[in-house]
Amino acid sequence: MTAWLLFILGTLAYFLIRYTGRADKTKSFDIGFWLKDNWAEMATALVLDLAVMIILIQNDTNITLWLNKYLPEGVIVSSKLVISLACGLGLGMGIYEIFHKKVKDTINK
């Protein structure tokens, strides 16, 4: 359950970061407009993130050795929890950016 909570928090954090980095900061927040403007990117990111999360939370998935390569010696963390947060934050960002670039390229053609 903690892994799923961290995944959701990472996803929310990513979209809040996107919101704070918006170009026009004079307009107040409008959830209806935001959902209409971002629903496809958000849905794609969530579907792919959920697929990765389902794979990661399986008991036979072990990413501890891989994660230990990137942590300072002596640091001990739950690899599944770290990856859950990273999945919500990082994968969402990557998927959103790829989707956004593809849409932009299609429009510019």
The biggest sheet amounts to: none
Give the helices and strands as they follow along the chain. HHHH
Number of helices: 4
Radius of gyration: 16 Å
Taken as a percent bin, the fraction of beta residues is under 5%
Count every beta strand, where a strand is a DSSP E run of 2 or more residues. 0
Distance between the termini: 45 Å
Number of domains: 1
Query: What value does the average pLDDT take?
Result: 77
Helix percentage? over 70%
Overall geometry comes to elongated
Low-confidence stretches: none
Structural class: mainly alpha
Summarize the structure.
By secondary structure, the protein is mainly alpha-helical. The chain has helices at 2-20, 31-56, 64-68, 79-108. Helix 2 packs across helix 4.
Describe the model.
The chain has about 110 residues and is mainly alpha-helical. It has one domain. Helices cover about 75% and strands about 0% of the residues. It has four helices and no strands. α1 packs parallel to α4 and α2 packs across α4. The longest helix has 30 residues. The mean pLDDT is about 75.
Give the helix/strand layout.
Elements: H1 2-20, H2 31-56, H3 64-68, H4 79-108
Helix pairs in contact: 1-4, 2-4
Can you tag this structure with a few keywords?
73% helix, 109 residues, mainly alpha, 4 helices
